[in-house]
Each structure stands twice: as structure tokens, then as C-alpha cells.
Design goal:
Number of strands: 0
Radius of gyration: 24 Å
Order of helices and strands: HHHHHHHHHHHHHHHH
Helix content: over 70%
Shape: globular
Largest sheet: none
Strand content: under 5%
Number of helices: 16
Distance between the termini: 84 Å
């Protein structure tokens, strides 16, 4: 047989991609089944370990704290894993270059709303503030629109949204999302009306914009791999914050008297909301770490508006972000930025304490 006849004996080669796609589908179904199975077993397992294995009184302080910790830790980590995987897939659609192109050239009022919405679905945190700010401003995105994005990206965090939904239900998650978006839009619009471009460090406007890299063409298999990479990277970095946050929440749940928290974070204390905001700024944490604390505070009688204000200040008014932004903003503009956002958070706190 001649060498020219050899390809004729291998007609099945083009069919190789099919098993690869089916493998991803099968692996995905198995992973979803395992995730659901683990999630369903968490509560009875925590109850069994606390009462039968550790022989703790489930009604006592230590028993309540231990059961809270044993139940909430795997629950939050499972929710975190699911949402981070989803964010990793979303990352393949919303690169910084694509986000910048979407926002540039928009009318400012439309741009504020669009920027806030993109801030929810794009996986950028305060660590990305400087490169994103430079890229947006030098690409022609108005200053106010840029700030709407910078407020929404960390505050209306997709991790926080999913965890809130899982822990408190869709109503609290919707309240959090709606108020966070409103703050981002109004803060950006207000800063845009103030015409504070002169308070940006001059070198930012002199920076040259690199030509945007072509968007990577990903197959769904590639996007799934990006999701798995995101889980390995992000969960590895935040799991300790999650455990520490749940440990604090367990202590509050088991040992802090209900009347005490209700008295200092309840609806009747007019000063509770500003104090909660002030306490939240230095207590920087990521969303996954603070939500178990929020759950414990609400369970002990703290008012929803006060707790929302506390959570938003922890996530959206962090001192690390202020330090990072100092590279591109003057101190006066940082003060205006934080002041406008703080006022929005205060309004949210008081309004929801009034109506809920």
C-alpha cells in the first residue's frame, strides 16, 4: 500500500471533538449533583456532629455557636465555589478592554447606569482600581461614569449577591442589589456634575492607551476551564476570610445577648446608622467574609437598614481602596468620592430602617 493510501484508513479522526464536549457535559452534571448532595446534607450533619458526636447542648451558648460554625462554613464555601465558577466564565466575556470599549463614548447619564450594571457582572475589585481608572479615563470615559463603575464593582458584588440570596432569600438580595446600584449611579452622576477632572493626578491624562488586545476566542470548554481556574485562585485566597468571618458570626450568634445588639443597632437608635458606617470603613473585608457576620447581626435583632449600611461601608468604603486610588486621585477627590458614597449609604440605612 502506498503512502498516499494511508489517510483513507483513518476516517474517524474528525469525530474526536464530540467525546470532549460530552465529557465536559458529564463532568458538569456530576459536579452539580455532588454540590446539591453536599448542600442538602449540611444541616443534619452539623446537628449530628454538635449533639451526638461532640455531646454539646444545642440550646446552650457553646452548642449554638459550634452548630452555627459547622453549618455555615461549608454552606458559604459551597455557595462561594459555585458563584466564583460562574464569575470565571463571565470573565471570558467581559475583559477590561471590552468593558472600556462599551463605556467610552456614551452619554453621561446613560453611561452611569450602564457602568453600574457592568460593575455588577464584571469580576473587578478594589485591587483593579488603578489600572481600570487609567484605562477608562484615557479612553474618553467621563469621570462620573468611571466612578459609577468603581462604586458598583466592589459594592454590588456578585459573590455577596448570591450568598445573600442563599442565606436570606431573594427579597434581601434584591434590596441589596437595588440600593447598591442606586448609590453607584447617583454617586457617579453627582461627581460628574461637580466637574472635578482637575483633581485627577495630571499624569493620568498623559498616559497612553495601549491598543486593546483582541478578545480571546474561547470555546465553552475553554470557558469552563477559566471557571475552574477562578475557583482555584479566588477560593484559595479568600477561604480564610470566610472562616474568620463565620467564626465571628458564630461568637455573635452564641454569646452576644440579643437585647444588647438590638439596643445599639436597632431602629430606635438614630445614631446607629452613622456609627455602623464609621465602624465599617476600617473593618475591611471581602463580601464572602462579612456576610456571615451580617447574618448573625440580623439574627440577634439588629435592624436591616443599619446592617446593610455596615455591610456596604465594609465592602465599598475600604481604606485599602483609598490608598490604592491615591496613585491616581488627589486627596480632595478621594474625600469627595468617599463622602458622596457615604451619604448614599446613610440614606439607604435610614430609609430601610423606616420602611422595614
Amino acid at each position: 500500500m502506498s503512502s498516499t493510501d494511508e489517510p483513507a484508513c483513518c476516517p474517524a479522526k474528525p469525530a474526536k471533538p464530540a467525546p470532549r464536549a460530552s465529557t465536559w457535559v458529564l463532568a458538569g452534571l456530576l459536579a452539580v449533583g455532588a454540590w446539591v448532595g453536599l448542600y442538602v446534607c449540611l444541616e443534619p450533619l452539623a446537628t449530628w456532629v454538635t449533639g451526638s458526636l461532640l455531646h454539646l447542648d444545642r440550646g446552650g451558648r457553646l452548642g449554638r455557636a459550634v452548630e452555627f460554625f459547622l453549618f455555615e462554613t461549608p454552606k458559604v464555601l459551597l455557595l462561594l465555589t459555585a458563584v466564583v465558577f460562574g464569575v470565571g466564565v463571565i470573565r471570558s466575556f467581559f475583559t477590561p478592554e471590552r468593558t472600556r470599549r462599551i463605556l467610552s463614548g456614551r452619554r453621561e447619564s446613560v453611561g452611569n447606569v450602564l457602568a453600574a450594571g457592568l460593575g455588577v457582572v464584571t469580576p473587578f475589585c478594589s485591587c483593579s482600581a488603578v489600572p481600570l481608572f487609567i484605562g477608562f479615563v484615557t479612553a474618553g470615559v467621563p469621570l462620573g461614569v468611571t466612578f459609577s463603575f468603581l462604586v458598583a464593582a466592589p459594592m454590588v458584588n456578585e459573590v455577596a449577591l448570591v450568598l445573600l440570596w442563599g442565606l436570606f432569600g431573594w427579597k434581601v438580595a434584591a434590596i441589596y442589589t437595588g440600593t447598591g446600584l442606586a448609590i453607584a449611579v447617583l454617586a457617579g452622576w453627582t461627581i460628574g456634575r461637580m466637574k472635578l477632572e482637575a483633581w485627577v493626578e495630571p499624569w493620568v491624562y498623559q498616559a497612553q492607551v495601549n491598543a486593546p488586545a483582541p478578545d480571546e476566542k474561547n470555546t465553552w470548554g475553554g470557558r469552563m476551564r477559566l471557571g475552574l481556574d477562578a475557583v482555584r485562585d479566588i477560593v484559595r485566597r479568600v477561604w480564610l476570610f470566610v472562616v474568620l468571618g463565620i467564626a465571628v458570626g458564630a461568637g455573635i450568634h452564641g454569646y452576644v445577648p440579643e437585647n444588647f445588639l438590638a439596643s445599639i443597632m436597632g431602629k430606635d437608635a438614630w445614631w446607629a446608622v452613622p456609627v455602623a458606617v464609621l465602624l465599617g470603613v476600617p473593618m475591611y473585608s471581602n463580601a464572602a467574609g462579612i456576610i456571615p457576620v451580617v447574618q448573625a447581626l440580623l439574627g440577634k435583632g439588629a435592624a436591616l437598614g443599619t446592617v446593610l449600611a455596615f455591610m456596604m461601608s465594609v465592602i465599598g468604603l475600604s481604606l485599602p481602596e483609598a490608598i490604592i486610588l491615591r496613585k491616581v486621585l488627589t486627596v480632595k477627590l478621594i474625600a469627595v468620592f468617599f463622602g458622596v458614597v457615604a451619604v448614599g449609604i446613610l440614606i439607604v440605612g435610614y430609609v430601610f430602617n423606616l420602611i422595614m
